[in-house]
Amino acid sequence: MKTFLRFIFLLGLVASFRSNGQSISLTSWPARLQLYARDPATSRCGVPISGRITDPTAATVSLVTLRDQKPYAYTRLTADSAGVFRTAPSIKAEPHQYSFLLFQHRSTGDSVWIATRDSIVCGDAYLIMGQSNAVGRFDNDPFRSTFCRSFGVNNGNAAYNPADTSWCLTNTTEAINCLWGVELQRYIYQRDSIPTAVINGAVGSTDMPAHLIRIGTQPDNLNTLYGRLLYRTRKAGLADQPLVMIWRQGEAEAANNGDTYPQQYARLYDNWRQDYTKLRRVYMAQLNILTDPSPTRAGTIRDFQRQITSVYANHVPIATVGLPGYQGLHYDEPGYRQFGLELYRMVARDLYKSTDTSNIASPNLKRLFYSKPDYTEITMEFEAGQRMKWPADSVITNPKTGRTYTQRMTDFIYTNYPSGESGLVKSVSEQGNKLVLTLAHSTTAQTLTYLPSSYQDNQLGYYVGPTIRNERGMRALTFQSVPIAAPLPVANDLRAVPLDTAAIQLNWNQPAASVDHWEVERADTSGRFKQIASLSNQISTYSDRRKPNATDSLRIGAVYQYRIRAISQKAEASYSPVVTASLQFILGIPIGPELNTNPSGTHGSSLVYPNPAADQVYIRLPLDWSGDPVALILTDAQGKVVLQQSRTVSGGMSVVPFSVATLPVGIYVLKLGYRGGGIQCRLVVNR
């Protein structure tokens, strides 16, 4: 209670005492509107406050923390022998503002107010870099919140004033945050309640070499594009804090020389990692289709951007092709707003534990292969979980002439681009994360391309035609000259044999070397197939055994369907023809004298053993058969004789051995003939 009363008393002193602060020099003190980067693990941050007391009669200071102008915390500090004091009060990443009041305590007399700072928040920091589409459109109806902030001034390539180091709200003239960047901040604030700061260093018409200029001894040199962004980030106190970079650039290289874009980007990313040591994510916008008549250059850059995650694990590509409001290079307001929403959903998934994760990402091609041996079918496979949609034809209206025209997706799927053909797709089957393209004719094409490298027509002049999307409308990343994997062999000789009531045995030929593994599927009378096994490529048999206590156990008398297919890292084969089998009882039928194998006169429990058998089989005989010839006949399930022998049983011999090592697995009927009679029983061969 005493501490709290003293806390309230100190608040009252603010209006009663004033000081020029000459007895204390502050070395670390927050700026108004400053954002401190949160620790992702705790969603909190410390606000560093330090200084030196120069008055020997005042050895202590106290710090009052307010949250929305209400008492939150109180700390009293004693300076060390050199007069130095420091603290770092913890604040939370939330839509509340914090204030700090610093007081000095003399050995005699009352406390003296030294300094006050308000409007402090904890949150996340984002950097935007690139060219004109990263500068974007300035919003004429701006969203503004005290929890959405920026720092410094972006004057493009103009000279930078080193004194421009003030915090400000987003959507002010000094911040120049692009519309989609403002949308990102708005969504994070409204849906996740996290304050944000966005520092935008993008400049229109800048190519990669301009972004690469980094002076080694002075990387924040204000004469360079790279240095101006780093200078602002360092002055904001964020360069060594968790950061996210959003990169939207490449139009300059697509229209000119983009052959070295991957190598140049690698250098740029190395620079970022050196100067932004806690870079968490990089979101990379894939270029839209430009009108510059470059045969392959722009498409090559887009394909590099598509595959960026395989090069850098913390990168996330986003498609821009198909965004509304496209004008051949830039976008109108709906296009930039849509990009801000799509960017937010992925940021929320990655950083804010959003549960809205299904089909929010741009579908990215993972495998491309011929799925029929006759080369008349190609399968596009995207990431697991994507639910792909093939677009209907697009009816486009030219706003200048009012003329309408139609574009088909099949006309923008190319084999062996740019010298191959288009219009080859006859029909498309949507199968979850796969699009299966049935071709109008067989082809020997080696590569496939989705959307041209560049496009220009005599209507609108730029591409606004159909795009491949997922069920949420997210557009697939374009790809260029991706190799089409050769078809895998189809198991056309699959056989299913019931092993009495124990199992159903599947057999097929030894697979080709191109197969990595086999997938085995089973369906009951419902007709719905379900995978039941994944087998090594060295295996060509599988035993589907009964599991008495399992809910999916085989049932005696039920008819089951089976199919298999070959799988590799690059392709999948078509399914084998479906085969059926059913577990049935097979009873031994005596056709001669009953066997009596026990001295007690009771019937023997096993005429043939082991049963099932894999190699050597033994037949137990009655003692009175010794010395006489015995006929041994083994027939398969179709009644075909697979083994026939005549044996003379020596005196005293009670067991006749024979081998089934060379026989296929299955159920056989064993017949033993003796003196015009004999016996018959089943024999199961299994391995």
Tell me about this structure.
Strands 2, 5, 6, 9, 10, 11, 12, 13, 14, 15 and 16 form an 11-stranded mixed sheet that branches. A 4-stranded antiparallel sheet has the order 17-18-24-23, with no helix packed on it. A 4-stranded antiparallel sheet has the order 31-30-33-34, with no helix packed on it. The longest helix has 19 residues. The chain has 687 residues and is α+β, with helices and mostly antiparallel strands. Helices cover 14% and strands 34% of the residues. The chain starts with a helix and ends with a strand. Helix 3 crosses helix 10. The protein is elongated. The N terminus is likely disordered. It has 5 domains: 119 residues, Immunoglobulin-like (Sandwich), CATH 2.60.40.10; 221 residues, SGNH hydrolase (Rossmann fold, 3-Layer(aba) Sandwich), CATH 3.40.50; 119 residues, no CATH class; 88 residues, Immunoglobulin-like, CATH 2.60.40.10; 78 residues, Immunoglobulin-like (Sandwich).
CATH superfamily of the largest domain: SGNH hydrolase
Task: State the secondary-structure class.
Answer: alpha+beta
Largest sheet: 11 strands, mixed
- Strand fraction equals 25-35%
Low-confidence stretches: 1-21, 586-605
Q: Kindly report the CATH topology of the largest domain.
A: Rossmann fold
Average pLDDT works out at 88
CATH class designation of the largest domain = Alpha Beta
CATH architecture of the largest domain: 3-Layer(aba) Sandwich
Global Rg? 39 Å
Number of domains: 5
The best one-word shape is elongated
SS field, number of helical segments? 10
Strand segment count: 41
Helix content range of the residues, please?
A: 10-25%
Intertermini distance: 82 Å
